Amino acid sequence: MRVPFLDLNAHHVPIRAELDAAIREVIDCGAFSGGRYVERFEEAFAKFCGASFAVGVGNGTDALWFTLLALGVGPGDEVITTPMTFMATAEAISYCGAKPVFVDIEEETYTMNPALLEQAITSRTKVIIPVHLFGQMADMDAILEIAKRHDLFVVEDACQAHGAEYKEGKAGSLGIAGCFSFYPGKNLGALGEAGGIVTSSEELKRTVQVLRDHGQDRKYHHSRIGWNGRMDGIQGAVLGVKLRRLSEANFARRTNAATYDKLLASAKQVIIPRVGKDRLHVYHVYAVRIQDRDGTLKRLSDRGIGCGVHYPVPVHLQPAYAFLGHRIGDFPVSEACGREFLSLPMFPELQPTQIEIVAQELREVTDL
Ligand SMILES: *Cc1c(COP(=O)(O)O)cnc(C)c1O
User: Cβ distance 182 to 190 under 8 Å?
Assistant: First the structure.
């Protein structure tokens, strides 16, 4: 039996009538770009995250870029993040004219290692971007404490962590801002491209609102050079429908992860994900580590199991960033993870029988 890596259809079938009605409403009233459906979603999402405001934008990359611009990041500045992330985190830094500076991840949680953070800070550092990789938040207390001591902003890359928690705080609510992607495959996904910024700073909210709309304070009056980064009305309406099911969907992901954990606990070749202290993981990705990752991936796909690799090449070793002059060995944990990470099928609707098949096949192919 085949098991897909992701099945968005299974997610959409039960809510199809509601999605159709929401889209019809937008078409009927013509609020296509920004407008009332985006505003309604912004209000609901801010509340969900425990922040005062949310600002809908075109995608998660826009969310990161506009937030950094609004914080005044520009040429000559440095922004610290991890190399084990999606390229967009670094791109947003580069598109401000600033330099990405990397800090390796922890072995346990695959998020920024606070013990290595301080040595990466220079007089040019402006912002720290911890990435809540795979749905687990970084060690925010330690990172926020260091940031405070050095008078730096913390912006959370929460693009994979909608609804994740650290102690009492939700992802996106602990830094000056949290940036989210609503790409279709994320825990909260649109039917197309969308993203959002949450913050409790009224000033920051206002600045990103101006930036996403061509730098306009009011129509055709431009106080700064902005961009077109507005959210579609249809995506706002769709996200409103899906947000109501996010907690339930995240619960299902955790249940699925617990089933994998149990079935794989005794598989010697497989390192299962670990959850850090005080964290609630929302398993955007269920990634295991395996020495012979590429061989395992091939054998699993031959058996009809859909897997992924997030991410095979850490950002500091990407050709696009060759000019930074990094070499193999600079960030050893990220590099080892890049060789060993294997993402197994994970979505809320994944069935226990499917998980059993994946675990069974994985045990077989790794025992060869
Ligand atoms: C998805 C993602 C982004 C970018 O979001 P887009 O909506 O695709 O632009 C940024 N950072 C991380 C960690 C992501 O997973």
Answer: yes
CA-closest candidate to residue 178, choices 328, 93, 66, 288: 66
CATH code of residue 275: 3.90.1150.10
Residue with the smallest CA separation from ligand 1 atom 6 is 60
Output the pTM of the full model. Answer: 0.98
How far apart are the CA of 211 and the centre of ligand 1, in A? 19
Residue nearest to atom 14 of ligand 1 (CA): 159
In a domain, 2, yes or no: no
Residue 3 lies in a domain: no
pLDDT in tens, the chain (368 residues): 899 999 999 999 999 999 999 999 999 999 999 999 999 999 999 999 999 999 999 999 999 999 999 999 999 999 999 999 999 999 999 999 999 999 999 999 999 999 999 999 999 999 999 999 999 999 999 999 999 999 999 999 999 999 999 999 999 999 999 999 999 999 999 999 999 999 999 999 999 999 999 999 999 999 999 999 999 999 999 999 999 999 999 999 999 999 999 999 999 899 999 999 999 999 999 999 999 999 999 999 999 999 999 999 999 999 999 999 999 999 999 999 999 999 999 999 999 999 999 999 999 998 86
The 10 Å Cβ neighbour count of residue 266 is 8
Distance 67 CA to ligand 1 centre (A): 14
Instruction: Report the nearest-CA residue for atom 10 of ligand 1.
Output: 88
220 with 299, same domain? no
Token digits for 229? Answer: 């980064």
| Boundary-marking domain end, from 243, 277, 304 | 243
152 and 198 together in one domain? yes
Tell me which residue has its CA closest to atom 5 in ligand 1.
60
Ligand 1 atom index nearest CA of 133: 13
Q: Is the CB of 136 under 6 A from ligand 1?
A: no
Q: How far is the CA of 60 from the centre of ligand 1 (A)?
A: 5
Cβ neighbours of residue 49 under 8 Å, at least 6 residues apart? 170, 171, 172, 173, 178, 198
Ligand 1 pocket, residue 85 CB under 6 Å: yes
Closest-lying ligand 1 atom to the alpha carbon of residue 59: 7
Phi, psi for residue 79 in degrees, rounded to 5 = -125, 130
Ligand 1: nearest atom to the Cα of 195: 7
Total number of domains in the chain? 2
Closest Cα to residue 273, out of 156, 142, 102, 111? Answer: 111
